[in-house]
Design goal:
This is Peptidase M41 domain-containing protein. By secondary structure, this protein is mainly alpha-helical. It has a single domain, classed as Methane Monooxygenase Hydroxylase, Chain G, domain 1 (Up-down Bundle), CATH 1.20.58. The protein has helices at residues 13-30, 58-83, 92-106, 114-128, 132-150, 158-166; strands at residues 35-39, 46-47, 155-157. It has a three-stranded antiparallel sheet. A hairpin with a 6-residue loop joins β1 (35-39) and β2.
């Protein structure tokens, strides 16, 4: 997963944050989330999916948690791919761990503990970035976010970021299930 030669701007903290945010945003896109905005803060983008729990079902709640964990992994994966290591926003691992513990607690399948869930989510996130066209989208998205931040924009239009991503990655088909197929609630 590590890049052979880190991008020349990786010593710039704002650029690293931009790469990290690009990873979160690309992951959300790959999960078919409608990206409302990207905040230039160490957290995933605002998406329409955050409103999915309105249905008050545990499955939709677990789906939201799973997607959030994947988005959190996406930032670290993008940073490692482009910069050779991860230094930005290290708190995401503790957030992913917490989400994994919640998912394990909600599961009736006792064969999966929180670490099984965490590693399964990590493997899925890494697989999302395996295709070359996905990796090729990281730098253009990061550069756009970096330029917006340099211009004083802390909240960047999700529509504009999505347009950049779509130049590299076609909209993925809708996928259902994920971990939910393993962690069925009774």
């Amino acid at each position: 997963m590590t890049s052979t030669k880190p991008h020349k701007q990786c010593s710039d903290a704002t650029f690293r944050l931009s790469v990290y945010e690009a990873g979160h945003t690309i992951t959300a896109y790959l999960l078919n989330q409608k990206i409302v905005a990207v905040r230039m803060l160490p957290r995933p983008p605002m998406t329409i999916a955050e409103k999915k729990f309105i249905s008050n079902s545990w499955e939709s709640f677990m789906d939201i948690l799973e997607n959030r964990a994947l988005e959190l992994f996406g930032g670290q994966i993008a940073e490692e791919m482009l910069c050779g290591n991860t230094t930005c926003c290290s708190g995401d691992i503790s957030r992913i761990d917490e989400i994994s513990r919640i998912l394990a607690g909600l599961s009736v399948n006792e064969d999966y503990d929180n670490e099984d869930i965490l590693f399964s989510l990590e493997d899925r996130a890494i697989a999302m970035f395996a295709p070359e066209h996905v990796r090729n989208a990281i730098l253009p998205v990061a550069k756009y976010l970096y330029d917006q931040d340099e211009a004083g924009e802390i909240e960047v239009s999700g529509k504009e970021v999505t347009k950049i991503i779509e130049q590299y990655i076609p909209r993925p088909p809708k996928e259902k299930g994920g971990l939910l197929s393993l962690l069925r609630l009774g």
